[in-house]
Amino acid sequence: MINIKRLIDLKQPHKVLVFFKKARDILFYVIDQSRSLQNCQFP
Known about the structure:
Blueprint: H1 4-7, H2 13-41
């Protein structure tokens, strides 16, 4: 379990930014994959 309060520590803001960037990249990847699947099913 990740300790959120420790991640948001002022000493390590870059870790929080990296975490959110990875989460955003994964989210966009999933959305892109679902769109391509829909395009294949409904051309």
